[in-house]
Amino acid sequence: MFRAILWSQWKWARGFLLVAVLIGMILSIFVLRGQVSFDGRGVYSIPDLLDRSRAFGVFFQLDATAVGLMLAIAAWQQDSRTRHVYALLLPVSRAWYASSRFAAGMILLLIPAAALAISTAITGRLAPLPPVLHVYSAGLAARWLLAAATVYAIIFALVSASPRLVKRIVLGTVAILVLDLLYGGFVDTAHRSLLGALMQSLFSRNGPYAPFLDGWMLIDV
Amino acid sequence: MIALRSVHYRAGKHFAVESLDMTVPTGSIYGFIGPNGAGKTTTMRLILGLLAPKAGTIEVLGHRMPREARLALAKVGVVPERPHVYPTFTVDEAMRFHSAFHTGWDAARATKLRAQFELLPHQLVGSLSKGQTGKLMMLLALSQSPELLILDEPTDGLDPVVRQEVLEALTEFVATKKATVLVSSHLVHEQERICDWVGVMDHGRLIAELPMTVFRNGIKRLRVGAGVSDAAAQAAPFLAVSRRALENGAEEWLVRNWEPSMHSWFVSVGVPLQEVIDLDLEQAFVSLLRAARANSANAADAAAKEAA
């Protein structure tokens, strides 16, 4: 049964998974494009290459976000189109069905992550870099996978919930944040913003969204 | 096989299933008829565990719904009101996916039905015509070798040729597998051909549930002379569903459970029975609905007067 679920998600997602693989390959080439010479003369400018590597980190982040988002949507899109009737009439529990769809998406995420690791490793091996620079293909791919998985998990949870529940969660969150801002602005100005604390805990070095922050450099010292 | 007891369900402000008692006997083909909006689809969703009742119990193949839906659905083939198969699958992919979840999948039957229904294996489900989609859903439901088939308007909107093909496949399956079938439709003549039990629903209430032979032969319209009291009518061996005064002083009765020997009852109460009018199934269905609606309107009036 899980194979059937995995196969169905592969069928629905394979188009953009292929695009994601290609984008990963192109990005790894573009990091080095114009910065290194493959004719034996080596790196033109190490600072320029590092700047370019840092700048391209954003594109890897965007790629991971887009793949996580698309994969989560693909997991539920067909069920949404049929109002979940087919899924609900299958002789499996709802929990099993939802967790199988989630697991299938996680497995499919490994494909572009592996492709990214391989393509960046090949590109790095072919590029004649000076000994001071290193290619972090496995680290970048792991970071990419973690970020894509985080986006996938969040969007999957939202898409799989009922529209009413999503509306309640979003409205509740907005209401709490507005009240928090009003409290901080008019009642207790020394009050530490809840939003600020939340962002800090999410995006700090050990927070769950740390993969989205700096450090997405394919080539570094 | 299927048993609903005192089931209550409310959908919005204007529609409710109230105190629904319904029994689909094992091995029967139970026709579920009623006008559009009567509550047939809601009742089927309750039976399938897609909706949870506010009160009452629902048992399907010995399993309580919706709590044990997973166990029951393993033995139930379903053709829902709207197409439910993923439109991006091809016909073959839909069959393969469906077979993975049903241990009783009969691959030979599926292949045979696909050929019989002239479905192309590589055609996308989303590109199938309404008739072809209906055939595919019936193919999937029958090929899982279910003990129970629940079909919600399976031939609605199909042309006569396709309808015939679908019904033939269904009757052949039932004949060989001895499955129980619950089939809803507002095509009364179609139900008459294939069903041996019938349930009539209106405004969320089951107004009649009886064997098809009784429904077909036992519902009559009688022209009788005036003078039978309500108390006497209640003691009759048949069920007087409604009474209406005619211009010539006589009355027209709609009765259930009628048998020819019951002429003598009118003789015993001293009222002449002028005519027994046979009704076909559709006439009987419409008459029953009208009588039920008139009775509930009268009851509501009486309640309002009492309250005033």
Keywords:
heterodimer, A: 221 residues, mainly alpha, B: 308 residues, alpha/beta, Rossmann fold, 6-stranded mixed sheet, 4-stranded antiparallel sheet, 11 helices, 28% strand, elongated
Q: Total number of helical segments of chain B? A: 11
Number of helices in the DSSP assignment of chain A:
7
- Quaternary state of the chains: heterodimer
The counted number of beta strands of chain A is: 4
What ranges of chain B have pLDDT less than 50 throughout 5 or more consecutive residues? none
Query: What's the architecture of the largest domain in chain B, going by CATH?
Result: 3-Layer(aba) Sandwich
Radius of gyration of chain B: 22 Å
State the name of the first-level CATH class of the largest domain in chain B.
Alpha Beta
What do the pLDDT scores of chain B average to? 87
Strand content of chain A: under 5%
Distance between the termini of chain B: 45 Å
- Note poorly predicted spans of chain A: none
- 3D shape of chain B: elongated
Largest sheet of chain A: 2 strands, antiparallel
Number of domains of chain A: 1
CATH superfamily of the largest domain in chain B: P-loop containing nucleotide triphosphate hydrolases
- Compressed to H and E, one letter per element, the order of chain B equals EEEHEEHEHHHEHEHEEHEHEEHEH
Q: How helix-rich are the residues of chain B, as a percent range? A: 25-40%
Largest interface, counted with CB-CB under 8 A?
A-B, 19 and 23 residues
